[in-house]
């Protein structure tokens, strides 16, 4: 690609131009669409609004380039809602609801992205998140990972939910410098109750998780343009829920409870009760999503699909970048084909870049105490 790009001066503008030219080359080469020279000439002349087709292609390639994602095989199936004209609170919320319902698709989850216009921000790092309520003794009811977000939403005026471990947080949508809160209706935040195929006591723990992971704190970088509000989802891999969210000591910390449900002796870790509890919680999450008819991957299948993705990319003459520590699953990693692989972790564009959480930003106009 680099050969097609003129060597620009190192100004931000020149960097954006170089990226735009490179992207147009990639787009026209891979899609065989005509008109590359004309589009590049337009890029040279200044502002270059991407067509919906270019934006869609760019978003798909950003997924293809995501070094941390082991589920990249279906990158070409990403559906992109081009909502760059939507810049008001109600419009954004309405389209987010449509995104959540359309992506769930009755359980046959469709990878989906919605790209909104300038001046919009979503403060939540995922569209569906459980509250983490800080207690006076320092403990957290709910998801400790979301305690800062929960505090932030409280400062923005959220009255708080019923106080369970699984209260779905409202969305903070910012437009024109003003943040407003929106409650998600239950059907837009579909959840799966966790039960175990043979151990009813695990089902009695009252665990659940939401069906859709919708990342909303990554900026989509395409053709030298940055789209700050481009929430996107795939479907879950069971280890994300069972081996991290519900198990990590700094999250729901449920392995002792699962071990108790299994009747395991937990006095010494040397009995491997942690490992047994972890395994059965993974079994339970897969079983529950399957029973509920909600699509979910398992680490054996997804790592083999990743190998297939690598084969297809090699055939297309494209190198695959990856971050080994993210690609390898946190369950039985050495039983998967990725264990003895090495990956180049370079980040190439189009791609996604992280954003600072809204509550760490000093931005005028959005502080509820000084409106
Ligand atoms: N690990 C995150 C979570 O547990 C979700 C990241 C995206 N995952 C995905 N399968 N698309 O919520």
Automatic annotation (TrEMBL):
Pfam families: NO_synthase
Enzyme Commission number(s) from the entry: 1.14.14.47
Catalytic activity annotation: 3 reduced [flavodoxin] + 2 L-arginine + 4 O2 = 3 oxidized [flavodoxin] + 2 L-citrulline + 2 nitric oxide + 4 H2O + 5 H(+)
Domain of life: Bacteria
Protein keywords: Heme, Iron, Metal-binding, Oxidoreductase
Cofactor needs: heme
InterPro entries: Nitric_oxide_synthase_Oase-su, NOS, NOS_dom_1, NOS_dom_2, NOS_dom_3, NOS_N, NOS_N_sf
Residues of the Nitric oxide synthase (NOS) domain: 68-75
SUPFAM superfamilies found in the cross-reference section: Nitric oxide (NO) synthase oxygenase domain
Keyword flag Disulfide bond: no
Matches recorded under PANTHER family: NITRIC OXIDE SYNTHASE, NITRIC OXIDE SYNTHASE OXYGENASE
Family designation: Belongs to the NOS family. Bacterial NOS oxygenase subfamily.
Assembly, per entry: Homodimer.
Other notes: This protein is similar to the oxygenase domain of eukaryotic nitric oxide synthases but lacks the reductase domain which, in eukaryotes, is responsible for transfer of electrons to the ferric heme during nitric oxide synthesis.
Function field: Catalyzes the production of nitric oxide.
Name of protein: Nitric oxide synthase oxygenase
High-level lineage: Bacteria, Thermotogati, Deinococcota, Deinococci, Deinococcales
Gene giving rise to this polypeptide: nos
